[in-house]
Amino acid sequence: MTPGDTVEVPDAAAMRAFGQSFADRLRRGDVVLLHGDLGAGKTTLAQGIAEGLGVRDPVQSPTFSIIAEHDGVDSGGGSIRLFHLDLYRLIDPLELEGLGYEQYLDPGDAISIIEWPERAGDWLPDRFWLLKITHAPSDGRRINLSRHGGAATGR
Ligand SMILES: Nc1ncnc2c1ncn2[C@@H]1O[C@H](COP(=O)(O)OP(=O)(O)O)[C@@H](O)[C@H]1O
Ligand SMILES: [Mg+2]
After folding, report:
1. What is the DSSP string of 25-53?
2. What is the rounded distance in angstroms from the CA atom of residue 62 to the CA atom of residue 83?
3. What are the φ and ψ backbone dihedral angles of 17, each rounded to 5 degrees?
4. How many folded domains does the chain comprise?
5. Which domain holds residue 113?
6. CA–CA distance, 110 with 155 (Å, rounded to integer)
7. Is residue 153 part of a domain?
8. Is the CB of 138 inside a 6 Å radius of any atom of ligand 1?
9. Are the CB atoms for 85 and 115 separated by under 8 Å?
10. Closest ligand to 42 CA?
11. What is the pLDDT of residues 5-28, one digit of tens each?
12. Is 96:122 a contact under the CB 8 Å cutoff?
């Protein structure tokens, strides 16, 4: 799948599998924004991405903590940190200042996944992957993939 494509994802297992294969394309410093309604499958997709990044601990909806950090394994066997954010409960984007949000928008040698990025208002990373999940006419979902703001530096 190349940016701009839309893929049909029939069930939750396929959602995780999609996330796993998408993880291969991620580089250190990448930010992934997951758009979609409540129940769209964002956390399921995040779980697949985390699996693809070699994260072993459970990735849940970090709704109450907003931010969860995990450690995965990169292709060379080194460690890679994953930030998983869920901004659903954010009332005002200003709250993000107290959370050190900037570090998640420019994660250095880590990778960030952000659910409900629209809750951050205009506060977006310079470059990001956008995965938009919508309901398909069946019980499944559709994912539209796009990339914004240029290529990863791959630090
Ligand atoms: N592609 C899919 N097709 C059908 N159901 C899915 C799909 N992906 C996830 N689900 C299911 O949708 C429900 C909500 O998923 P979840 O990942 O918690 O959504 P969100 O984080 O967007 O609120 C779960 O029961 C999950 O198993
Ligand atoms: Mg969720």
Report:
1. T--TT-EEEEE--TTSSHHHHHHHHHHHT
2. 10
3. -65, -40
4. 1
5. 14-146
6. 9
7. no
8. no
9. yes
10. 1
11. 999 999 999 999 999 999 999 999
12. no
